[in-house]
Structure formats: structure tokens, C-alpha cells
Specification:
Layout lengths: L1 H61 L4 H33 L8 E3 H16 L4 E3 L11 E4 L2 H17 L6 E8 L5 E7 L21 H6 L6 H11 L3 E7 L3 E8 L4 E3 L1 H8 L1
Parallel strand pairs: 2-4
Antiparallel strand pairs: 1-3, 3-8, 4-5, 5-7, 6-7
Helix pairs in contact: 1-2, 2-6, 3-4, 4-6
The protein binds adenosine-5'-diphosphate.
Length: about 280
């Protein structure tokens, strides 16, 4: 066996090594291509609003404008400036998520408070255009339940899903935000909408940076194309799992499945709420 092995090593060893090296180079080339794509995407996303802004500044500086035109231009300039601010905020959030250690598992937050805050932000975004359902206060799955992790990360992931539901659901549509304890431990945060839905082909790529199905709809509603990559990072960092179910024209359901280690129930509080 020893002899056979040494013959094989002599005969195929170099091939084997070269294969490993090729994989390494391919991996490096892929990373490099991804980095270049990312820089190109960021530049493009920033250049578009900058070009619009520069055009308006020049117009305002060179043309005599009536008060209505001035007002309209200032509104559009504010819109473009906000767009760049959101983009930079999302980019910084992503960079921080990628560069910092995982959030401590002993930092506990009442789930009822999280849901309430997400509800307020979602209602604000919808401005009464959608029917939004939230868990009842006093719901047994909420009373005394706490979730472990980084508060701003958790809020950012959950509000991103809720804000997408509003942005990709036509007016009068239904959105429901849910929270359930799982029988075997752990819990599920769920956002369900009756919106435009997502074709199956897109699902695997949805959490990639700047991946959008309809770029103009995303931008018109204030999207940066980074929301779901932020969600993906937060979910991974909390040992959770993201699932997406969707039907074109019927709607989508996004779920975050939290492991048992990150969910705890204060029995006394839960029992008092039920009494
Ligand atoms: P964006 O800022 O473009 O919304 P996201 O990363 O949050 O970026 O989402 C990526 C893409 O996934 C969106 O552009 C949209 O096409 C699709 N998407 C996300 N959420 C939903 C949803 N609830 N319903 C339909 N499409 C969605």
C-alpha cells in the first residue's frame, strides 16, 4: 500500500497541487470581481443623484426662476440628497456588520417592545395606505418573552423586512407582522404581505448587495438595494435563519427563525399576563 501510495503521489501529486492552486486563484479572481462590481455599483448609485443635483444647482445659478420653479427644484434636490444619505447609511451599516464581532448572546430585549417599535415605523411608512396587522398586546407568545442580541441590528433587520412589505405592496394591500414561539424552542418573526410577489428564479440572489428585480420601483420607493443584505448579515450573526416564500401577484412571507439559545420566557410575567 505504501509503495502504491508513493507511486500515486509521484504520478498525480503535482496535478493535485496544481488543482488546489487553481481553485485558490479562481476564488481570488471571484473575490476581486465581486469587489470591482461592488465599487462600480456604489459609484453608479452615488453618481446618479449627484448628476441630478449638479444640474439643478447650475440651473438655479444661471437661470432666473419663479418661486414655484425654485420650490419644485429644491424639493427634488432634497429628495436626491436623502437618497445619498440613505445609501451611505446602509453602506456604513454593512461595513460595520462585516467588520465587528458577533453580538453578545447575553443582551436581552423584550420582544413586545421590539414589535411595538417596528409597528410604529411600519405604520408611519404606510401612512394608512395598507391594512397592517400586529400581534395583540397580551398575546401569550409575547408576554415575558425576550430575544438576545444587538438591539439596533435586530430592529434594523426586522424593520427592513416590514418596510419592504409596505414598499412592494400596492395601496389597500394587507401586511401582517407576527411572532410565534416554536414548540421545540426558539421563535419565528414573520412579515407577510399581499404584494407583487417574487418569481422563484430571483429568490437565491435576493440577499446579494444591489440585487433588485425592478430597479426603478426600488429607487422610487427609496430603496438602496442593500436592505436584504443587511438582513442576511444580522440573521447570520444571531445564529438565525432567513426563509422566503413568495407567489407572483399574491404576496411574500419573510421569516427569521431564531434558535432556542436566543429566546427566553419569564414564566412569572407570562403567567401574570394570562391571568
Ligand atoms: P431594495 O432597497 O431594492 O428594496 P432589498 O435588498 O431590500 O433592496 O431587496 C432586494 C429586492 O428584493 C428588491 O429590489 C425587490 O425587488 C425584492 N423584494 C424585497 N422584498 C420584497 C417584497 N416584500 N415583495 C416583493 N419583492 C421584494
Amino acid at each position: 500500500a505504501q509503495l502504491l501510495l508513493s507511486v500515486l503521489v509521484r504520478r498525480y501529486g503535482s496535478v493535485g497541487q496544481r488543482l488546489v492552486l487553481t481553485q485558490d486563484v479562481t476564488e481570488r479572481q471571484r473575490n476581486e470581481a465581486m469587489r470591482r462590481d461592488f465599487v462600480a455599483n456604489v459609484s453608479h448609485e452615488i453618481r446618479t443623484p449627484l448628476t441630478v443635483l449638479a444640474g439643478f444647482v447650475e440651473t438655479m445659478a444661471t437661470l432666473p426662476l419663479g418661486p414655484d420653479d425654485r420650490e419644485r427644484m429644491l424639493q427634488l434636490m432634497t429628495q436626491q440628497t436623502r437618497r445619498m444619505q440613505t445609501l451611505v447609511t446602509d453602506l456604513l451599516t454593512l461595513a460595520r456588520l462585516e467588520g465587528s464581532p458577533q453580538p453578545a448572546p447575553d443582551d436581552w430585549h423584550p420582544v413586545a417592545d421590539l414589535i411595538e417599535q417596528i409597528g410604529v415605523e411600519t405604520q408611519g411608512l404606510s401612512r394608512g395606505r395598507h391594512l397592517i396587522r400586529l400581534p395583540e398586546t397580551g398575546d401569550a407568545d409575547l408576554a415575558g418573552v425576550e430575544l438576545a442580541g444587538n438591539l439596533s441590528e435586530l430592529l434594523s433587520a426586522m424593520t427592513n423586512l416590514a418596510s419592504n412589505a409596505v414598499r412592494y405592496t400596492p395601496d389597500e394591500g394587507r401586511i401582517s407582522i407576527g411572532w410565534q414561539l416554536r414548540p421545540g424552542g426558539g421563535a419565528v418573526f414573520e412579515v407577510k404581505d399581499s404584494g407583487i410577489g417574487i418569481a422563484r428564479d430571483h429568490l437565491p440572489r435576493l440577499t446579494e448587495r444591489f440585487y433588485r428585480i425592478d430597479g426603478s420601483r426600488s429607487r422610487e420607493t427609496g430603496g438602496t438595494g442593500l436592505g436584504l443584505s443587511i438582513v442576511k448579515h444580522v440573521v447570520q450573526r444571531h445564529g438565525a435563519e432567513l426563509t422566503i416564500d413568495s407567489q407572483i401577484g399574491e404576496g411574500s412571507t419573510f421569516r427569521i427563525l431564531f434558535p432556542a439559545s436566543r429566546v427566553r420566557v419569564h414564566r412569572a410575567v407570562a403567567e401574570a399576563a394570562q391571568a
